[in-house]
From TrEMBL, chain A:
The chain crosses the membrane at residues 6-30, 37-58, 64-83, 95-117, 129-162, 174-196, 202-222, 234-258, 264-288, 295-314, 320-341. The keyword Membrane applies. The lineage of its organism: Bacteria, Pseudomonadati, Pseudomonadota, Alphaproteobacteria, Acetobacterales. It comes from the Bacteria. Keywords: Membrane, Transmembrane, Transmembrane helix. Signal peptide: none annotated. Coiled coil: none annotated. It comes from Falsiroseomonas oleicola. This is Uncharacterized protein. The keyword Transmembrane helix applies.
Amino acid sequence: MIQGAAGALVAGAWLGPALAMLVGLGLLRLAGAEEGFLLLLTLVGLSLLLGAPAAVLAALRGVVAAPLGLAAGATLLLGFLLFHLEEVMPVRQALPAAVAAAALAMLWGGLGVAAGLGLSPLPGIGAGLLLAGGLAFGLGGVAGALWGLAAGAALAGFLAAVPAAAARIRPKALAGPAACGLALALAVVAAPLVALLSGGPVMALTLPLLVALPGLVLVALARSLPPFGLASGLLVVQALAVALGLLLGGAPAGAGIVMPESLALYQMALIGAGFLPAFAALQAVLLGRPAPGPAILSALLLAVLSAGLGPLLTLAAPELAAHAALVAPLLATGFAFWLVLRDPEDAEEDPA
Amino acid sequence: MAASPVVERRRSQRRGAARPASERRGVRALRPGEAMGLAPLLVGLTLTQAVVALLLGLGWWGAALALHLACCLALPLIRPILPEEGWSGAVARLLLALLPGLGPLAVLGALAALALGMPRRLRAAVPPLPEDPLDARLEALATARPGTLPDGLLLESLADVLRWGHAGQKARALDIAADPARPAGAALLRLALGDPDPAVRARAEALRPAVEQRLLDRAEVLHAAARGAAGAEGLATQRALARALDRAALSGLLEPAAADAARAEAAGLWQALAESAGPAGDAEAEAALGRALLALGDLPAARLALDAAVMRGAAGEARLAWLAECLFRARDFAALEALVQRWRPALEHASRRGATGPEAGAWRLWLSATQR
């Protein structure tokens, strides 16, 4: 098994989509397109749902070509069906959107195996960004931005994935890591997806994730994970970030990004996002274990709570509905903490 | 004296001890691979996908889809001709996997990967050896350069695979044994011809004619060389010819008549060499002559030659074993007992060392019998 990739995989599940969204928005702006946030959110979410199982599989078991090919092909088909037939987009936009989703699905796998091999993906990402910017600027429009995103992601993903294909690591059991990847992807997309499907406040739930990015970067860079020490440290760091976010108060509402009536939900989500890096650190410890059960369980719990707690509280006690955004990551972090605690070997501090 | 690393490794393998993880995960250089094998394929795919991209740009969606699908349908035909190893092989495998989903973008990535080449940090990294010890042993044997591996170690390792491996491992062991660059491996085919698995026997039978021909060809080449040589060079060529004939005769792969003919000719050559050695004698020639005569059934002459070889100094366990067999077949048990008593210290030392030759059991039996 490739060692040391667990932190990058788990933190990357939040970092990758967030950065892809930022790059996509930048490309849309560069191409002169005004709209496209929801389209980007959908295609990035789709790429994560189909790409994360392949990425975890590739990083933990070393099988690269077949899972990435399968993920890219399936994402292309599903994406085209979704965008062209369901969303009734013209082919000239639906096709690049589907190809961009497929390229992103492949990119997650490439980044995962690059982390596993300890290789830097930055040269590939740099080349991809240049290509994406050039295409978006040259072609223009939403389709141009999407072709740019697709080309950049494909280039960066291919360059990141080839070294692992060259290493030809022997595959072992495949079902566990793939299930871990799917559970992780569900945990990441659950809350925005439910908000998107139910017409809820998507921005109030997705924007607070930016607060968690510094902590997630720390988890991604940690090559050995002393779970409790790191998680405690991250909670302190994140508490400061959350306090800063709360101090800013209604600034997003003032800027028109968040609806004033969703401000309470936004603030709860901001505090809840502070727990995500700690959850990711504990989840990485679980992912590094030989048995995949605990890692799947804790990620699924976060997914279920993120997706179901809000609607449930809205039905039972509408005045408490906003608290779901805080309670879901809090409970999931506690559960992951308990799962890690059950194994004394993992629970010990890193001797280094 | 400390044992050499090779001996230590053999002992460790014999004991079945697991090698430390650091050694199992040891690194060796990856072969960069030849990009030339990939070039025609890449040019074809690049041109096709460039047309696909052009059609997409023109908005001819149906034509682009049809051409892309045709390209995808051709991929299974391309797969068998791809390079297996190295950077270009990895690029090709990934390209073929991603082409259906990414189309021209996959070709773009492949071109960039080939242009940039293998990352420096990866050049020294390869996957760990297979977890199955027999697979790991076969892998190590296959990657060892011919000539760097002692014949005995090669034979012992491959024989272990034939003894304990599954059908696939046995087939691979036979392929290694039949490699012309590893002449010692021929002796393994005899073992494989008696394998209980019919598939292994069939594989060995299929490899046998080529190995047999190689042994005879080698002798034929030396025959030609011996005809034109004289003096010291002639003696050296005669010795090489006699060794080659011995190897062919003892391989167990020749037809019985051909093997007997090779043995008889080798005996003549060894006798000539022994006679030309003068008073100092030639222990190798005498021992080989004795072995050949023993195999031909001339026991008195074999005994004379082997006695001379053993008494000349460096007896060696093998020569003692041939002499003991000769005495046993001649029913001269008193001489056999005297032989055991004469060489008891050397034989006991070999027994303590855990010698594992075919005669080891017989020696232990005779040692205990003569003690009583």
